[in-house]
Amino acid sequence: MLNIIPIPAFQDNYLWLIENGINATVVDPGDAAPVIAALKKRSLKLTNILITHHHADHIGGVDALIAKYSPQVYAPEKEQYSFSRIPVHEGQLIEIKDLDVSFNVMDVGGHTNGHVAYYGANSLFCGDTLFGAGCGRLFEGTPAQMFASLQKIAKLPVETAVYCAHEYTEHNLQFAKTVEKDNPTLIERIRLARKLRDANLPTIPSSILLELATNPFLRCSSPEIMSSLDLQHADEIQIFTTLRQMRNQF
Asked: Choosing from 28, 31, 53, 115, which is the catalytic residue?
């Protein structure tokens, strides 16, 4: 039985620990200390690390974890890293044998050009590509690239659990409300997210179904959003580009 545990780090990061009571894989360990503490608390052996992209808050703990546990590291083929790793690319299947789970690698460039996501066990580990009710900033990629990446994610089974790397959901929902204020599912999600955060609980994981219903970056064909932006005759990439620019200033 797999458990997926959020390890809070920095101000709002989640480092995801996937474990079966014996072995563990960690996704995007930006800081080694909380990972080591979580492993010790649960008496787990770290055997694998999955990296979605090269930003420091996602890889800062890798060297220390390699030194302590000698795990196998997987990281995007299109990016450069100082540590030893297996490069991964679109369509590759990664078998984590000690957890009896496999992950398909998805190329989801946009936040960075080489960004990947890992999909398996009905779960998506998507780093900074898709957030709760939002998406990542375009530090390296283009709007068209990110839009295509999000459309690829949107085609996953609706029951897929979405494990992103930051607790941005409440702020993203407030932005979503400015462009789709009459969406009842969005209004209910705002209420539930506030309740979770008031209890100091994560709003993540989300699901593909919930994101399709409430995430403006997956709803570029919504008549209300198009009307809010006064872009009723624009194409979806134009809508997405405008939304991303607005969110940058929100």
From this structure: 53
Catalytic residue among 28, 31, 54, 111: 111
CA distance 112 to 145: 10
163 and 4 in contact (C-beta within 8 Å)?
yes
CB 165 within 8 A of CB 13: yes
DSSP 8-state assignment for residue 234: -
Whether 141 and 109 have beta carbons less than 8 Å apart is answered as yes
171 is catalytic: no
Q: Out of 58, 63, 100, 233, which one is annotated catalytic?
A: 58
List the pLDDT tens digit at each of the 250 positions of the chain. 899 999 999 999 999 999 999 999 999 999 999 999 999 999 999 999 999 999 999 999 999 999 999 999 999 999 999 999 999 999 999 999 999 999 999 999 999 999 999 999 999 999 999 999 999 999 999 999 999 999 999 999 999 999 999 999 999 999 999 999 999 999 999 999 999 999 999 999 999 999 999 999 999 999 999 999 999 999 999 999 999 999 999 9
The kind and range of the H/E element at 123 are strand 123-127
Active-site residue identified among 128, 182, 198, 233? 128
What type of residue sits at position 184?
P
Q: Is 89 a catalytic residue?
A: no
**Rounded Cα distance, 105 and 103, in Å:** 6
Domains, in order of start, for the chain: 3-170+203-211 (3.60.15.10)
- Cut 0.85: pTM above it: yes
Please give the Cα distance from 76 to 90 (Å, whole number). 9
| Tokens encoding 231 | 């872009």
Active site (annotated) includes residue 166: yes
